[in-house]
């Protein structure tokens, strides 16, 4: 029991406000999770990680050997500069990382960010594409619904309405 005799176990004062704050935060988190954006984010992260692996493999397998050829050699020291014994600057790996980053960023920008920004801009201006025309099934179901509504409460009424002729 609380000191005031109510059924709430939280005492009056700062702890009660903290409990309300925690409850509000948890409700906000629940709403955030239920929106579906978290699932989209998780899928994006997994796909981004997989794509990064593909780009890294491409740059390691194809781009880095080209850098090594241009740098003068194909051995273990190729693509590296050794100004002093034991001090190695592996510029091929650094260029490989830069190329991996640029390719990954460009693909994500052109396949994800740019289309989403264009869609958001269209929505902001109110220029969303018109909805597609309903399929034949939907049109038929709409006609059936309208015919049932036209019959009203009388199940013995003809299916075409009280004063309509059947289509020919």
Automatic annotation (TrEMBL):
Organism superkingdom: Bacteria
Native species of this protein?
Paractinoplanes tereljensis
HAMAP family the UniProt entry points to: MscL
Q: Which GO terms describe its cellular component?
A: plasma membrane
**What Pfam families does the record tag this protein with?**
MscL
Q: Could you tell me the gene encoding this protein?
A: mscL
| Chain segments annotated as transmembrane | 38-63, 91-116
Provide the function of this protein: Channel that opens in response to stretch forces in the membrane lipid bilayer. May participate in the regulation of osmotic pressure changes within the cell.
Q: What topology does it adopt in the membrane?
A: Multi-pass membrane protein
Which Gene Ontology MF annotations are present?
mechanosensitive monoatomic ion channel activity
What is the name of this protein? Answer: Large-conductance mechanosensitive channel
Q: Which PROSITE patterns match?
A: MSCL
Location of the protein in the cell: Cell membrane
């Amino acid at each position: 029991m609380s000191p005031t005799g109510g059924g709430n176990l939280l005492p009056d004062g700062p702890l009660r406000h903290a409990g309300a704050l925690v409850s509000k935060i948890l409700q906000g988190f629940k709403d955030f999770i239920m929106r579906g954006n978290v699932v989209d984010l998780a899928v994006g992260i997994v796909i981004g990680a997989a794509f990064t692996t593909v780009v890294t493999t491409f740059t390691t397998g194809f781009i880095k050997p080209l850098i090594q050829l241009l740098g003068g050699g194909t051995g273990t020291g190729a693509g590296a500069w050794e100004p002093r014994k034991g001090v190695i600057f592996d510029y091929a790996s650094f260029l490989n990382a830069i190329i991996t980053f640029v390719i990954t960023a460009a693909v994500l920008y052109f396949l994800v960010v740019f289309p989403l920004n264009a869609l958001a801009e269209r929505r902001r201006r109110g220029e969303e594409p018109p909805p597609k025309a309903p399929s034949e099934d939907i049109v038929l179901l709409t006609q059936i619904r309208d015919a049932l509504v036209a019959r009203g409460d009388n199940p013995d009424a003809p299916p075409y309405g009280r004063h309509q002729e059947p289509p020919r």
